[in-house]
Amino acid sequence: MNSEKYSAYCREHIKEFRDELRDEASQALTSWPGKSAAILLAMSSVMTYVTRSGSQSPLAFQALFAYAVPILLIFLFPIASLLNSRIEKYSRVALDLASLTVLLGFCLTLRFVFEPRLILDQQSAIFLVPSGQINFTLLMTTAFSYHTSYRTTLLRNIMFTVIMVSLIFLISPQYLATNAVQVIQGLLAGTIFSWMFFARVQIRFYYRSIDADTRQHLYNQLSKLVYPHQLEMIKAGDELEDTMPVAKGRAIINVFDVQRSSEIKHERTKSFFLDVFRNFFQICMLGYQHNPLKSRAFRLKETGDGFISSIGYPFLADEPDLLADHAISTALMMFREFNEEVRRFGYSTPIKGAMGLAFNSVQGTFQSSGIKSYDLFGDALIQAYRYEEIRKHPVIEKLINDRALELGLAHYNILIIQEVIYNSLKTEYKALFDRINLREISFQIRQDISAEYVYFHLLP
Questions:
Q1: Domain span including residue 58
Q2: Which of 95, 106, 257, 417 has a CA between 20 and 30 Å from the CA of residue 427?
Q3: What is the DSSP letter of 297?
């Protein structure tokens, strides 16, 4: 059952399995197995030469070159693949060719050994010497399988055996008849070993691929929890707590909320919010890069119908010296995306949002235990929440409504910013905002008691 499982998996991933076998064959040719085989063939040629030259054989010298082709193939393949990497993809064919030329070289050796024709007593003595090599040679040239289907390997082994038997028969029918059992043993042993080799490669490929798939799945899931630079740092050996800034800093916090979200009654309400926040996150990630850590904004959290982002910390803004302008342009981009999603949502009554922006100190932190998610805390967050909510105060709400009537807006988005942000804006952005004098209306923001003014901008 396991064998069927491995085979089925390899068939389903045939391209990857073929690449695995190609790499295995290339490794066999270029590393110690190929080099050892070439040295063994060279030693066999030398020993044959020494033995036959002592017997005054006229073809003893030619025996030195019987295995020249497979030896050259084994030693030249690594050089050729270095010169042209495309050659490496033919490593399986090269290995089969090397095995076939070994068989041909063995038959050629027999041809040199058995010439000239010998009398019966000499023939028996000569036949005895290479008899054991038939079994070994056939075994070693058929014992490896680098084809995606074992049927191909089996057909190759049978073809090699037929070629070997045919050539030996042409060289010496008597010798073939004497060693028929050796041929059968070599084929059977090679078939058994090639099947074991093929099964081992299948199993290793299966578990390696499953392990790689598991790691990739874990990587993909982890990428939903942390940023790409965090993944790279973790892969490099850094601790999670070292992947994000935790020192004190200053930032503009943007708190977005959907006005009267509890009144939205629709089966796709949750999907609508998710689409809005997905677009907001894409805006935040504009210009994202690592070293230095930078992006348009940092998504801090989503709160059901709200979205909180930070500008200037922990990710640097594109222009740190123009942080206020950067924050306003980001807020306007978010409102445009929000209006577009509202249009696609097609709700029966207008849906509008509100934002509050505040600039102050913040600090990054990881939770001390359990799942260690990254978070921010500091005065900027507290104040941004408060600036977004002051639109609900009766006096401020009336002032905003009066201004909306002047502009002819029955429904509108609201952007409320802190005085320090307004004072830092360029003239073009300052012209968008209306001012509320907090002292004139006897209103104090407890989280920002020094504030004298608050500024708001109404968008259709």
A1: 2-220
A2: 257
A3: -
Q: Which residues contact 65 (CB under 8 A, 6 or more apart)?
A: 45
Asked if residue 327 and residue 261 are part of one domain, the reply reads yes
Could you tell me if 208 and 268 lie in one domain? no
Percent of the chain with pLDDT over 90: 53
Average pLDDT over every residue of 279-305: 92
- Strands 413-417, 453-459: parallel, antiparallel or unpaired by DSSP? antiparallel
Rg (CA), the chain: 40
Band (131; pLDDT cuts 50, 70, 90): low
Gap between the Cα atoms of 273 and 70, Å rounded: 69
Please tell me the predicted confidence (pLDDT) of residue 234.
Answer: 87
Give the long-range contacts of residues 90-95, CB within 8 A, separation 24 or more: 91/22, 91/23, 91/25, 91/26, 91/29, 91/146, 92/21, 92/22, 92/25, 92/146, 92/147, 94/25, 94/29, 95/25, 95/28, 95/29, 95/144, 95/146
**CATH classification of the domain holding 366:** 3.30.70.1230
Helix (H, G, I), strand (E, B) or coil at 367: coil
Q: How far apart are CA 460 and CA 411, in angstroms?
A: 7
Percent of the chain at pLDDT > 70 equals 95
pLDDT tier at 236, thresholds 50, 70, 90: confident
Mean pLDDT check: name the lowest of 153-167, 207-221, 412-426. Answer: 207-221
